[in-house]
């Protein structure tokens, strides 16, 4: 009688053999390695946030309650005197209003133009790759350098714009574009939009390219017009990318400093200053008051973002 030498399928090692109790297939683990969970991995990021974000905020708030000389020496506690002095400034109301209008104008124009550019760059046309590369140029260059370049272009005596307009007979004489707030604000808004377009356009373009083509095909089959497709399919699916670009632009534009300082330094006086520039102007006379303005500016940014996220329902859920 022959005996089959093949072992039963269940008896072969590694195939269907039940694991022995008390033994893990992943190998032994050192005792205590899971005690802290993910903390060892996120600790560097937490420490970075503490030292780069929270510590400066603490120092800023602390400095707003001190008497500090312009040379940086602490002269003692000031209590709430710096805040009283700040809210007694005659230019503060104008600066706050100018900051709100500046933010709304720059962010609104940036989002509108970026939406159109993203839609254009999402299409296929000759030279699309070159135009995409060209759009990066304002983003790659320093914002301060761009602002100073426009400042020299708009210079009253040696500016290219005044020279061209005078030679063409379009103006009777050179215009002081940046000396008059009525003309300085539109030019600063133009430059701010110019340097903000690349990031926002590419953010929206990335959102457009995540929309499945099958959705548009189904809309065409259902007889939807291009306008209906854009309003009911493209914009709703673009909402997450749009919100990201909008929030980041709100924070950046509200705190914008290089554009205004590089072109007008907030002058004449504080006629073209926002809260960030006004804060820097106060530093030359009273560091404590400047720190108080920094605290107010910080709180305004936090409230603005929280209000926007509440209204915009960031997670798309009903509260």
Structure commentary:
With 319 residues, the chain is mostly helical. Helix content is 63%, strand content 2%. The protein is built from twelve helices and two strands; from the N terminus they run αββααααααααααα. It has helices at residues 39-63, 81-87, 92-121, 128-140, 143-153, 160-167, 181-208, 213-221, 226-254, 258-263, 275-283, 287-312; strands at 66-68, 74-77. A hairpin with a 5-residue loop joins strand 1 and strand 2 (74-77). Helix 3 (92-121) runs parallel beside helix 7 (181-208) and helix 7 (181-208) crosses helix 9 (226-254). The longest helix has 30 residues, at 92-121. It is globular and about 75 Å long. Residues 1-15 have low confidence and may be disordered.
- Summed up, the helix count is 12
Output the radius of gyration: 30 Å
Note poorly predicted spans: 1-15
Helical content class? 55-70%
Q: Shape, please?
A: globular
The largest pleated sheet is described as: 2 strands, antiparallel
User: Structural class given helices, strands, pairing?
Assistant: mainly alpha
Describe the strand arrangement of the main beta sheet, using strand numbers.
1-2
Taken as a percent bin, the fraction of beta residues is under 5%
What is the string of helix and strand elements? HEEHHHHHHHHHHH
**N-to-C CA distance:** 79 Å
What's the number of extended β-strand segments?
A: 2
Average residue pLDDT: 84
């Amino acid at each position: 009688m022959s005996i089959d030498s093949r072992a039963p399928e269940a008896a072969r090692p590694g195939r269907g053999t039940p694991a022995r109790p008390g033994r893990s297939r992943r190998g032994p683990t050192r005792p205590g390695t899971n005690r802290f969970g993910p903390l060892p991995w996120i600790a560097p990021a937490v420490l970075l946030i503490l030292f780069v974000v929270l510590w400066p905020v603490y120092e800023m708030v602390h400095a707003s309650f001190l008497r500090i000389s312009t040379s940086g020496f602490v002269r003692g506690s000031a209590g709430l005197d710096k805040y009283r002095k700040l809210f007694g400034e005659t230019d503060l109301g104008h600066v706050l209003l100018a900051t709100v209008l500046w933010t709304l104008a720059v962010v609104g124009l940036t989002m509108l133009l970026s939406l159109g550019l993203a839609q254009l760059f999402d299409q296929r046309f000759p030279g699309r790759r070159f135009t995409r590369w060209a759009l990066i140029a304002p983003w790659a260059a320093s914002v301060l350098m761009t602002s100073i370049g426009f400042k020299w272009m708009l210079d009253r005596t040696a500016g290219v714009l005044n020279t061209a307009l005078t030679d063409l007979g379009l103006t009777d004489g050179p215009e002081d574009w940046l000396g008059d707030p009525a003309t300085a604000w539109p030019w600063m808004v133009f430059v701010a939009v110019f340097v903000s377009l690349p990031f926002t356009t590419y953010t929206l373009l990335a959102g457009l390219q995540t929309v499945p083509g099958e959705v548009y095909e189904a809309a065409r089959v259902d007889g939807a017009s291009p306008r209906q497709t854009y309003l009911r399919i493209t914009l709703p699916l673009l909402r997450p990318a749009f919100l990201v670009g909008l929030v980041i632009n709100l924070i950046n534009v509200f705190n914008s400093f290089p554009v205004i300082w590089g072109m007008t330094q907030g002058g004449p006086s504080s006629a073209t200053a926002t809260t960030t520039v006004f804060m820097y102007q106060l530093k030359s006379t009273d560091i404590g008051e400047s720190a108080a303005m920094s605290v107010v500016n910080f709180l305004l940014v936090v409230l603005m973002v929280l209000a926007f996220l509440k209204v915009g329902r960031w997670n798309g859920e009903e509260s």
